[in-house]
Design brief:
With about 325 residues, this protein is an alpha+beta fold. It is about 55% helix and about 10% strand.
């Protein structure tokens, strides 16, 4: 009996030793069990398979969103992404239009997000998601301004739970360096919360089911408050005495009316209701800043990706795709 107990303890120590190679793994396992109802031994086994990748640390340290707008824009606003967006919409027009109507999201926005995220499914990421979330959850670079290790640790727990719910081979799933997956690049918590089984086959497949992908993107925007047909952003003129604090980086949630913003020196160059809530966005062009008034729908896009550069790229790509569909 004592021998059996000793052997069991030895096995537990051996498996635990593999997991605790990652700093803070013990606390992680406790949280995974108490908050997500996961099995400790299964979590330990999976952590032992997660590898630190320096290339992931390097990638998170220099995201594209750190570029100025005039360098960021050409990455996503180019002939290929526009023409393939038109082709994607035409190929799946019945699906896109049906999803747009059901979820109340403008179809060109749905298509543009898939285009910006993965070039319509062509580039979904080659990192093992397990490695990405292990690296960023346990080894997040300390020289960055914000420590987001807690965020990625929680995403790793969601990833393990997602594997149970969708029967995913967790040590094989690939995605971005930040752990985003599929054609729409959903992080695990978003996958669990917003992905939908639109094709009705019993699973939410964001890699191979275009129906699930298109509907899941639309559902994400719908839940976050998208209003079909309403404006997203219009260009603005900044007067010399304009209050530059209004254009300072923040969460871009509209809090002032267009009329109030005009009194502070920013005049809309588009036809928009002066009572509509708006925010001011300043973008760095190659020679001078440009200014924009952004509305609730713009803020909704930033719930998908917090960067205002991303939201503007989605908007401008969507406008070009819509023109292509109408030509």
């Amino acid at each position: 009996m004592l021998y059996a107990v000793a052997c069991l303890a030895g096995v537990m120590l051996a498996t635990g030793a593999l997991a605790v190679e990652h700093p803070g793994a013990g606390e992680f396992i406790q949280r995974a069990v108490s908050e997500f109802g996961l099995d400790a031994a299964e979590v330990e086994s999976l952590l032992a398979q997660g590898d630190f990748q320096q290339s992931i640390v390097d990638a998170i340290s220099r995201p594209a969103e750190a570029k100025p707008w005039h360098e960021y824009r050409p990455i996503f606003l180019n002939d290929r992404r526009i023409s393939e967006g038109v082709a994607f919409w035409r190929e799946h027009q019945e699906l896109v239009d049906s999803v747009s109507e059901q979820y109340g999201v403008d179809p060109q926005i749905i298509v543009a997000i898939i285009g910006v995220e993965t070039l319509y499914g062509r580039i979904t990421g080659s990192y093992r998601v397990l490695d990405a979330l292990t690296t960023l959850g346990f080894y997040y670079p300390k020289d960055l301004k914000r420590d987001r290790s807690g965020f990625f640790s929680t995403e790793l727990m969601h990833f393990i739970k997602l594997g149970q719910e969708e029967d995913l081979p967790l040590n094989e799933v690939t995605g971005s360096y930040a752990g985003a997956m599929g054609m729409g690049q959903f992080i695990p918590s978003s996958y669990r919360a917003y992905a939908v089984d639109f094709d009705g086959n019993g699973s939410r497949d964001l890699w191979r089911s275009t129906a699930d992908v298109v509907a899941s993107v639309a559902n994400y925007l719908h839940v976050h408050g998208w209003r079909a047909g309403e404006p997203v952003s219009v260009p603005a003129e900044a007067l010399p005495a304009a209050d530059q604090a209004l254009a300072a980086p923040r969460d871009h949630k509209p809090v002032h009316s267009v009329g109030e913003i005009a009194q502070k020196g920013y005049h809309s160059l588009g036809d928009v209701d002066y009572a509509r809530p708006a925010a001011v966005l300043r973008l760095e062009e190659s020679d001078r800043p440009s200014y924009w008034l952004t509305f609730d729908n713009f803020y909704v896009i930033t719930r998908y990706n917090r960067s205002p550069l991303y939201a503007m790229a989605v908007l401008q790509l969507s406008e070009e795709i819509l023109r292509g569909m109408q030509s």
